[in-house]
Amino acid sequence: MPIFDASPLRGTTVNRRANVRPTYIEPPLTLGARLRRSTLSALLRLVVITAWLAAMLVWFLAYVPVVGAAVALVVTLGNVEGRMAGFAVGAVLVAAGVAWRWTGPDSFDRYVEDRTDRFARRIRYRWTWTDLLAACGLASCDAHHTIRVPRLWWVQLGRYADVLHVQLCPGVTAEQLAEKTDALRSEFHALEVRVLPHPTRRGWCLLRVIAADTLLDGVSPPRTPADVDLNALELGRRDDGAPWLLRLLGRHVLVAGATGAGKSNVVAALFTQLAPAIAAGSVRVIGIDPKGGMEFGLYPDLFWHLACETDVEMVEALELAADLVQARAVALRGVARLHTPTVEEPFYLVVVDEIASLTAYLGDRHLRDRAKLALGRLLTKGRAPGVSVVGCVQDPRKDVLELRNLFTTRIALRLSEKTEVAMVLGDGARDRGATADRIPVTAPGVGYLIEDGSPTVVKVRAGYVDDDQLDWLAATYPTPTRLHPDVINAELVHDDEADEQGREPEVVPVQRQRSKARR
Ligand SMILES: Nc1ncnc2c1ncn2[C@@H]1O[C@H](COP(=O)(O)OP(=O)(O)OP(=O)(O)O)[C@@H](O)[C@H]1O
């Protein structure tokens, strides 16, 4: 038995001994005693409520300083110059407030409305918390029949989203809280509620209550950086206002979304960030576009190799990438655990627009199996040797993309059904706030992102990259080298026999490929 049991200190007590029947019955009180008792308790309540209202009023006046200063002025003048003077000044100040709202709605909103709204939100959280959680079944009852709900310790108010710091009580988990986010959202009059792990405390969690969608108005196109950091590629913005930084080194990225959800634009945003490294030669992109080059054909100069015409060509491009992984893994054996991209040993990125065209919709079964095998080799072995895959998919079902769980970063843009959210982001992601099936058609590029090993759901929107910007990128940052066609046809992916037998195809050393590519 622990020396000190801290559990009674965790959680808010709702009721004590709730389920216990009284063991004795109080003798009936006389009418006088009953009156005295009820009057006393009513008086006590009145005092407590008045003190609470006074404290709230003072807090409100301090929280909205413009209103606080106006009220202080009216009260002071009323005391010094008499009531009439106080009323007159009050009327003038109200008229000035109306005029201010009329002539400068932005500043009025910032100094008065927004702060008042935030204050009201704080009161609403506190006021409804205990009853709401108990009503949602997020309460536990201990051995002493004490009913507790998780405790709301403090509230961080933001312009568009508030963060509630919640200490869980014994018997209630963050997962249970996540299942009830719809009820919380409706009660808090919010757009979304998301459960996040607490960054510092165990047994706590954060509730992110989103009051307004900051991503609806669109996001400006990402600026091309001078130095490319493959661990922080800025593709757009997160809904908390921070930049959306994508980590590509050592990751594979799956972008899923219905047609028109903005998948190609996410890839285009990626190119705005990679372009200087492509031009410098430290990043080489292998593009596979089953739409016949309609997407990647717009900026072919950024690709080290672009396969978009025949199915065979596209499958061979995948196999080429898988062979590169194999060759590099051999070269790195005993030297390093993670490849560091340089101009001599560049980082390879394989971008596949509509990956299902290769893994599910290819008519030739043999070719489809080859594509699946190559993709599997790439996804399982490519991260450490510096070969990453970015794949787009419209239909995320398992029979379409068996290997979707091997993608370490998964982005769900607008999806058609609830069930697809779990297919892309994993079980429980929708409960934690990834409502990709609710993204409106009018908001292409908006999506939810999850990284392997982290339960945190992040809402993001890619910056919109138009055709002119892509033309400019391709003209300014063309790739200095291209894959020599002979490499594909003659040496790297010819080993059909190996595929049929299920063994690794023979691989040529990296050094030899490079000298060929430069020819
Ligand atoms: N981040 C964004 N901001 C604003 N508009 C966007 C954004 N992303 C995409 N769009 C708009 O949505 C349209 C469709 O985008 P995109 O072609 O990227 O979708 P997709 O998912 O690749 O579609 P498909 O599956 O049909 O190829 C674009 O033409 C563009 O007008």
Automatic annotation (TrEMBL):
Keywords: ATP-binding, Membrane, Nucleotide-binding, Transmembrane, Transmembrane helix. It comes from the Bacteria. Residues 495-519 are annotated as: Disordered. ATP binds at G257, A258, T259, G260, A261, G262, K263, S264. The keyword Nucleotide-binding applies. SUPFAM superfamilies: P-loop containing nucleoside triphosphate hydrolases. The keyword Membrane applies. PROSITE patterns: FTSK. It holds the Pfam family FtsK_SpoIIIE. Residues 223-422 form the FtsK domain. The chain crosses the membrane at residues 84-102. Residues 495-506 have a biased composition (Basic and acidic residues). This is FtsK/SpoIIIE domain-containing protein. It comes from Actinomycetospora aurantiaca.
